[in-house]
Amino acid sequence: MQRVIVIGASLAGLLAAAGISDAGGANRPVTVLDRDPTPVDGTARPGVPQGRQPHVLLRRGLLALQELLPDLRPALLARGAVPLDTGDLAWRDVTGWALHGEPAHEILSLTRPLLEAVVAEQVGALPGVTIRRGAAVTDLRRVGRSWQIRLDDGSTLTADVVVDASGRSSRLPQWLAGMGVGPADETVVDARLGYSCRLYAGGPDPRELAGVVVLSDPTLPKGGIGLPVENGGWIIAATGTGDCRPPRDEAEFDAYLTGLRDPALADLAASCTGGGPVAVHRQTANRRRAYDQVPHWPAGLLPVGDAMCAFNPVYGQGITVAALQATTLRREWPARMDPAATRKLLSRLTSTTALPWAMAVGEDLRFPTTPGSQGLVQQLTGAWAREVGRLGVHGDRRATRALTTTYHLMGSPLAMLDPRLVLRAGLDLVGVRGAPNPRPAVLETLVEPAHAPAG
Fold first, then answer.
1. What is the mean pLDDT of residues 104-119?
2. Which of 170, 181, 199, 346 has its CA at a distance of 20 to 30 angstroms from the CA of residue 42?
3. Integer CA distances (angstroms), 168 to 188, 318, 384, in order
4. Where is this region: Disordered (predicted)?
5. CA 296 to chain CA centroid, nearest Å
């Protein structure tokens, strides 16, 4: 039976192990190696610098997780994860407020450490899966038809298949160079986005306020998000690009929230009973390595997750893509991992990144802090998506559904080309336009009515 080693116990690595272990019902032995020690409950791992930031698990990602680990959702709920309907989010973009209270997609809101802890528990309990902590990989070599993995303690392991899930810091390009393979073409699109976030105690009841999103855009490159998490808390993040990246100082963080295009997040922070220290994260570039195009790709080597394609985390796509790749491994794992089968599977793993990459990069290229510019197709696609968003802000439910379905990767972007939306946009051009959606009334409960903005 194939011996499989996964490098990295990130969510991408853990989920890949879950998918591989029972592909074809084989109960295949899989060893997951991670350089970090066993994490302390509720704390982010050193190898996950973004672990303290908020994470949005898109609806498609939640479904993929449940396919891989059927008991995951009830376990997360039992540990305090907050179920919410994305239609109940107070969502503000440059043109106005999205429809509020319109049923959309259920997701779970929780911190990254809680999600990783429960996933690790369930993956570690799978037949044949072993998770080794404190085992850093220093070298990877092809020896005959097998892989030799050297660890930092000088020991070596042998495997038939190696999955690289070591994230943005992956050393696979260097290891491939040592084998005389590659290099892979690399594309980087960096909007110079920065995150700052605080974990707050107390706050409003999530059944009344599901969360707040204030989007940035090139005209005001400051935004933020606030979501309920376990233990009755809220996590609030501020985002910004270039010189507008949010600060580390707690007082400056609060002031930054008041400078957004709506004070809803500042009001949310003020309604909580206390905030923790500010956590900052700035490794946010989109980075894609075209491993599927490398000639003479070695058999039994598969990069996944951020080691293959990393996204600007503001769009919440990384965990979902990792989960989709893991379900691909489960469904398409070959009986024999020869060069042809490896390349076919690598191509399928790459294809899961295509739409999220196009969405993230197309949007980031609009910002003046991003080197490069949009192509004509990106300009036209982006302009139409913004027009559909504006229709939603003016009460069009069909436009709202098309946008949320695409954003949560639950359907094709072609839904935004519905002829009825094209007709609606045409009517707007001649002045037949619906009234803008009001500011969600629930936000008025966060502050005194006299301090709430109009519209």
1. 95
2. 170
3. 12, 11, 32
4. 27-51
5. 31
2, 337 contact by CB (below 8 A): yes
Distance CA 245, CA 237 (A): 12
Whose CA is closest to 436, among 389, 385, 384? 389
DSSP H or E segment with residue 107: strand 106-109
270: three-class secondary structure by DSSP: helix
Query: If we measure between CA atoms, which residue out of 262, 279, 246 comes closest to residue 212?
Result: 262
Span 154-168, pLDDT tens digits: 999 999 999 999 999
- Per residue in 209-261, pLDDT (tens digit) is 999 999 999 999 999 999 999 999 999 999 999 999 999 999 999 999 999 99
Please give the single-letter amino acid code of residue 229.
Answer: V
**Cβ(134)–Cβ(153) below 8 Å:** no
What is the pTM (predicted TM-score) of this model? Answer: 0.93
CATH of 4-55+111-189+284-358, one of 3.30.1120.10, 3.50.50.60, 3.30.420.10, 3.40.1010.20: 3.50.50.60
Q: What is the largest CA-CA distance in the chain?
A: 74
Q: How far apart are CA 418 and CA 210, in angstroms?
A: 29
Burial class (CB within 10 angstroms; exposed 0-12, middle 13-18, buried 19+) of 125:
exposed
